[in-house]
Design a protein that fits this description.
By secondary structure, the chain is α/β, with parallel strands linked by helices. The two termini are about 45 Å apart. The structure holds adenosine-5'-triphosphate and magnesium ion. The site of magnesium ion (MG) has 3 residues, from helix 2.
Length: about 375
């Protein structure tokens, strides 16, 4: 078969043709930025927050709005927060002006120098007095506002994986950041992160500094119709025909979750035996995907308590409209009352394995759920 690169990408930010729709979300977020409305964008893991935000920043840039994207994923200390923020600022603003002059005008406590990585991409390194972290933090936080004010421009700063801020100096830093942000008139802030932490820990607790700082924006899945069109187009572009009912089986399996859809399509493309995919091919791809993930799933499983496993089995066998606490399940697992299962479910929520939405519990990883149902549920005693 002719070799064409797999058109389905999973695990990293997607852009260009690999990015499906989200037109309404892009428009809404752009509108918020134009209106200088701070936004808290959150979803479950891998719903496409980062990809969406980059798309929005690309559009914002075309309108003359200066975008700074700070990835806080790798940080666990205040020093690292400062480094990542300063690097993000340098990466952006150095495209507008000569880097060295800019850095001198921007910072007095932070020293930034630019080198190149082995691939030839610019790489910034940051230095500052570690005994003066708080002052350096203040300087980094006010630098974007100061720069934009001087230039008479407007910008947007995205803190991606914002929940990591809780790893720094705790509330003291959050309070300082909030106080500074409130005085900024030339920057709009987008706080992006995972649902659980953003909502429960940071933004909906009246005692926390970021309470009500901006508009709450829950990111949903991609609409089924858009996703169907996307799947067909991506296969067709790679010279593969796919039957409509095969697409249907895919979106039903992945429940329109962007990451799992791309993952399943990627596997389907990898294992296809001809350039025409039929509905029958999808279960093969699901089986393949499950076997690829089985070691990771087994490792997760091994670390759970018996009650947690029972609760997962109950959830994996619960269809919409049913309760995992139904008598049949409680009896099966010798649970005297629902509270026993609720306790186990809560501990699984803490572990990011289970999610609770509108009062209903569900296993986050759809393929983990399927793996439990297929390989565990009826084969192991509890
Ligand atoms: N608009 C989209 N079109 C197509 N695929 C998408 C889209 N958004 C997300 N995906 C799929 O989901 C994966 C994760 O996307 P992304 O990293 O943007 O999500 P995220 O919500 O930022 O994830 P995390 O919670 O890990 O930060 C991508 O690799 C891609 O497979
Ligand atoms: Mg992300």
């Amino acid at each position: 078969m002719e070799h064409i690169k797999n058109p389905f990408i999973y695990g990293t930010r997607v852009s260009g043709d690999a990015f499906c729709n989200r037109e309404e979300e892009v428009e809404e977020l752009l509108g918020d930025i134009r209106a200088r409305q701070h936004v808290i964008l959150f979803s479950q893991r891998r719903f496409g927050k980062t990809s969406l935000v980059w798309k929005v920043l690309e559009e914002a840039r075309k309108e003359g709005i200066i975008p700074v994207h700070v990835d806080l994923y790798p940080i666990s200390t205040l020093g690292e927060f400062i480094e990542e923020y300063a690097k993000a600022i340098a990466r952006t603003l150095s495209t507008y002006e000569k880097a060295t002059r800019l850095m001198k005008g921007l910072f007095s406590r932070l020293y930034l120098s630019m080198g190149v990585d082995p691939a030839g991409n610019p790489q910034w390194s940051v230095g500052f007095d570690r005994n003066r972290e708080i002052e350096t933090f203040d300087e980094a936080v006010s630098s974007v506002e100061n720069y934009l004010k001087r230039k008479g421009k407007f910008g947007v700063v995205v803190f991606d994986e914002f929940q990591q801020i809780t790893e720094t100096n705790g509330e003291k830093i959050e309070r300082r950041l909030r106080t500074a942000i409130q005085t900024h008139e030339h920057v709009c802030y987008l706080f992006v992160g995972s649902k659980k932490h953003m909502i429960h820990d940071l933004f909906s607790n009246p005692n926390r500094p970021f309470y009500r700082i901006g508009k709450i924006f829950p990111l949903g899945k991609i609409a089924a119709a858009d996703l169907r069109g996307f799947i067909e187009k991506r296969f067709n572009e790679a010279k593969v025909d796919i039957d409509v009912n095969a697409i249907e089986v895919i979106v039903e399996t992945t429940e329109c979750h962007p990451f799992y859809t791309q993952y399943l399509c990627h596997v389907l493309y990898d294992i296809m035996e001809s350039r025409h995919i039929r509905a029958d091919d999808v279960p093969k791809a699901i089986g393949f995907l499950l076997s690829r993930e089985s070691t990771a799933y087994m490792n997760t499983w091994d670390l759970l308590t018996n009650r947690q496993r029972q609760a997962l089995v109950a959830l994996s066998e619960t269809v919409p409209g049913e309760s995992p606490f139904r008598t049949e399940m409680l009896r099966r697992f010798n649970m005297s009352q629902p509270a026993v299962m609720i306790r186990a479910l809560k501990s699984l929520v803490d572990k990011d394995i289970v999610d609770k939405e509108d009062g209903r519990y569900g296993i986050i990883d759809l393929f983990f759920k399927r793996w439990i149902r297929t390989f565990i549920s009826h084969s192991q005693p509890f």
